Amino acid sequence: MSQRWNDWLGKPLRTHDMVSQPAVNRFAALLDVPQPIGADAPHGFHWCLCLPDANMADIDSDGHPVRGAFLPPIALPRRMWVASDVSFHTPLQIGAQIERVSTVMSVAEKDGSAGSLAFVEVDHVTSAGGTVAIRERQTIVYREAVGSVQATANTGGARPDLSNWTWHRHMVPNEVLLFRYSALTFNSHRIHYDLPYATAVEGYPGLVVQGPLTASLLLDLCVRELGSDVLTSFAFRARTPAFAGPEMHLVGRRDGGEISLAAIGHDGRTIISASATIRS
């Protein structure tokens, strides 16, 4: 790990929020589930809390806040949230006061087949009413501007084989879904709503589906099958981008206390792989 990033390591950032009924209702509407009036917030709602609120003057050309405040000023132009490991300790109750402590833990620079990469790991500890509710290790990757995203995204071709999966939900992530999730999370990254930017500047074949949105849909699949109060952990890894328009298959299976999950594209590509554990 390069010492030039030491000034950004280990320095906690504290943010505060509240689990409000209207925000939870909007998240439930996004998932197409009943509004949990007076109950706990659905799993995945924590990604809608303690959001970055940079002024317009502090927004970069890609829609993200400019780098160098909390996250290190890595020069590589493309940024993606590629993984999270989450542990659930207590539910987020509607009305709870929230504190999140976020800390950059590591920066690793590597050379891969697609060029230079930088991996940033961030720990988030979310507490409700002074009690730790959720711990998360988030991985962000920065990479060079690559012109081959479209070709890579269109090379599947095979219809997905879902025979090894027990749970299956079919959906089409459209532009409205992406917009609503960006609004819920105050995420202004332009690849999710600005089609000319996504295609002409970043080289994608369409609007990119947010990783935590797909992860939230997989969490919802677990809840639909197992109930809302059994999950103890959840981890996801982004494998390849998904785009607005083509169908997506949310699949899962249970093996004892272990849950395997995936989001699979219409052409058989694994978009996200995930796992979860449940209480014994």
TrEMBL record:
**Domain FAS1-like dehydratase: from-to ranges:** 18-129
Organism from which the protein derives: Sphingobium psychrophilum
Q: What is this protein called?
A: FAS1-like dehydratase domain-containing protein
Any Pfam family hit = FAS1_DH_region
- Example GO molecular function term? (3R)-hydroxyacyl-[acyl-carrier-protein] dehydratase activity
The family database entries (InterPro entries) matched by this protein are listed as: FAS1-like_DH_region (IPR039569), HotDog_dom_sf (IPR029069), Mitochondrial_HTD2 (IPR052741)
